[in-house]
Amino acid sequence: MAPILAPAHPPNSPARLHALIPAAGVGSRAGTAGPKQYELLEGRPLVLHTLAAFAQVRRLASVVVVVAPGDDRLASGEGYEVVPCGGATRAMSVAQGLDHLARRGASDQDWVLVHDAARCLVRPEWIDALIDTCEQDAVGGLLAQPLTDTLKQEDGGRVQGTLPRRGKWLAQTPQMFRIGVLRRALAQAGEDVTDEASAVEALGLHPMLVTGSAQNIKVTWPEDFALAGAVLRSRQA
Ligand code: CTP
Ligand code: MG
Fold it and tell me: Which atom of ligand 1 is nearest to 219's Cα?
């Protein structure tokens, strides 16, 4: 069973760290029969690779996985709790997961690391680097990668212009914020934001960009499964 959070977080105690893993999507772009997070990769459902990385981050007080209501494909396990409170959008799933953490005793000052279940190549050392960089920061931040390709603006299948690449980053996860700030940000941002940082930015705050890895892909398209499998095999070799 997952570790049970203390019912009440004593005042003035240090902020704790929680991980929240949205896994309530349908994976419509992945071309799989079922939701992509359950697709077998090297013999294990994709989401279990994600959870294995988080299991190696010793500083986490709890790990909560948000799945769709009625989804019984993943049960709570060693060190993580599965909660069937997913919503219609990723932002709604995250907001529901944050409500659950708050009900379980997480305080507004606690940190939460929100991480896409579909980013199954994440490594514990990248998660630790994000925590090390953000833990003393007023806002928090996210793993991200500077853009390497040239960026084109399209119109009707043709290039309309080339956008300056300098200073542009690709947002990844985990994204680490204070639970209170993130709940307020998501409540104000609405249900269509695709990451936590954009909701926090809308409050006028400026999250830190922490360099991640190009390997931290979000399995999205059919060809991504073979790529993720190859990376996992290369790590075992
Ligand atoms: N997610 C979620 N709840 C939703 C939608 C997405 O918890 N209503 C989760 C997904 O399970 C995934 C992560 O958010 O782990 C990132 O979303 P994405 O890669 O877009 O996954 P899907 O929405 O499932 O895929 P698609 O957009 O192709 O349908
Ligand atoms: Mg999606």
Answer: 19
